[in-house]
Fold:
Amino acid sequence: MVRGRLWRCANPALKPADHERLVHGLMDARREIGMARRRGDSAREATSRKRVHATKVALGERGPVWWSDGAPDYNRRLVKNSPYARWYERSCPPMPDEDANITASYEEIAMNIFDALREDHDKQRALAGKLVETHGASDEREALFAKLSRELKNHAAAEERHFYAPLMQHDLTQDRARHSVAEHHDIDELIEKLEDTEQTSPQWLAIAKQLQAQVTHHLDEEEQEVFQMAGKRSPPSKRAHWRKIIGVRWTGMTSACVLATAPAAGEYSTDEHCLILELLNSQDDRHVSVARARVEPGVTTKRHCVIDTEERYVILQGAGRMLIDEAPARRVGPGDTVRIAAGVGQSIANTGDSDLVFLCICTPRFEWRNYRSLE
Structure:
């Protein structure tokens, strides 16, 4: 249910593999809509929209109902105008406001958040546009690439921990959040390709143009689809949470973040000397898992690897030293991101006086059967 309106869920009888295949197809079709819109290709956009509809029918979210008990379909109906009205009033009372000092409406707060995100988006579009206009190994190219890379990484880190982590906890926004985080990873890989390519090479400019296209596609999709879904999904009870987020400068990354200081209920200790709080790890979503990791001062985690699973760390709080096999030791702090390839040995040391806290994002999702201790 979204803002008092009933929505039909996917057919629970679908096999997990079929559901996964259809969700992938749905995401592909949505990407095609964005690409067609940017190119002004109305015929392709119409074809892609038909594909979206057909996939939703296959999932059971639209078209003929998937149940067989004769119950009517109230999809997209207001709950107050359905037989579920009294049940909803009893089971889902209005949520109390979490902060009596907040006077702005939820819509005003959400608009401030999205305006801040759009401001960063405009900056990233401009930097990407300037980058592809540069020539050869010039100081201008080097400076623009460094600035764009920093903007993209900091912005993605803020989005993933403040914006997408909460959206992943809800069925209606989980797929979109997962898709957007995956696109952050695609952008990371293009940045890494540019870092490994000589700037004098014609290939460098070709990759830079791929990066510009991917960034533009991702930002357009966020603004045109994700922001609207997020605005509808988040209840007024989230006002205090959003207000804290507004207080964090998206590209500054210096304030203590909400996740880093969240209550530790559900946190558990591992043999590698790390404390874990699972945020998202479900068999229903095999593509990604998200956990908050905490390493206490003076502690170095045991060397280990995760086979068939790629990890990305997003540092939220504290100071540390990242140790990855066959790579130089690297200092890390708030806003830094670290990519660890599948099967590669690694550990992290807390070099500060306070807890080192970071998000661990695994693709596909983390499973203990893939964990290997290397000590």
